[in-house]
Amino acid sequence: MDLDALRTFVAIHRSGSVTRAAAELYRSQPAVSRRLTLLEGELGVPLFERVPGGVVLSEAGRALLPFAEAVLATVRDAEAAVRAVHSADSGSVTVALVGTLASTDLTAVLRRFARQHPGVEVVPRTATSREVSDLVRRGEVSLGLRYGSDPDPALRCEALFGERMVVVAAPEHRLATAQGVAMAALADQRWIAFPEPPDRPETSGTAIRRVLDAVGVVAGQVLRIDSLTAQKRLVEAGFGIALVPDSSVREELAAGSLVVLDVADLDLAIPVTAVTRQGGFLGAAARTLLDELRLAAATS
């Protein structure tokens, strides 16, 4: 039983005769009759009964009809979905990004893209950098946005921009107004940072740890908090200082609830990378979104 046989069967049913079905299918009447005979032979039962003026479904035909219609509808849906892939204005784009990137200009790009392409469903989800790579590799998302590159040859990584990291403190911190502070002067501080599970290392967390290790910050001085929002609230409350993405504290700086310490010898920017599958197919909408991300990165 193939699609052509099911199309022939449904056409005969809807038209009420083999002759009218042949015209609908742009085939000869003998060809349509032969296709029906083959299908009935395959199933071992007659699918139609002859009546004056045409044919009607037999009991077996009535049993087959809903399944045949469902199969043909699914095929039409699949064809429509494939066609939509070639349009930048329809279909869906699944995006996995590291949670802290939601505070960057990338979110504004996603929002603008969704507004400009209302026919495209943008489906974001958050993950660690490693998980972003895994989701892209398995084909569960079209596009990934993570920190750093993944060396896996199955992935294509493209650096978009560097996320500048800054040290933030409460406004009443003793060094809040100091100029040209050295990182070594912060070695005795309590720091607030993300946990670093050994099985799920995060690129940004590794970079921060290297900075802290370089100035002698020991593990006991680091308060591990798994939420960026919670980290900022604790810094505001005076529980420590933190090394965070510059873009993540814009609201707090504008409100005066946090300040950026002027650290003279800190020059840390973590690369933000777009990840796609090497050799994988990227739909038109996903390609358009990636182009807009590139443009935003180039002009920022």
Can you tell me about this structure?
It is built from ten helices and eleven strands. The chain is an alpha/beta fold. The protein folds into three domains: 3-85, Arc Repressor Mutant, subunit A, CATH 1.10.10.10; 91-160 and 271-299, Periplasmic binding protein-like II (D-Maltodextrin-Binding Protein, domain 2); 163-269, D-Maltodextrin-Binding Protein, domain 2 (3-Layer(aba) Sandwich), CATH 3.40.190.290. The strands form two sheets. Strands 3, 4, 5, 6, 7, 8, 9, 10 and 11 form a nine-stranded mixed β-sheet that branches. Helix 2 (18-25) crosses helix 3.
What is the topology?
Elements: H1 3-15, H2 18-25, H3 29-43, E1 48-51, E2 54-57, H4 59-85, E3 91-98, H5 105-116, E4 120-127, H6 129-137, E5 143-147, E6 155-169, E7 191-193, H7 203-214, E8 222-224, H8 228-236, E9 241-245, H9 250-255, E10 259-260, E11 269-277, H10 284-299
Parallel strand pairs: 3-4, 3-5, 7-8, 7-9
Antiparallel strand pairs: 1-2, 5-11, 6-9, 6-10, 6-11
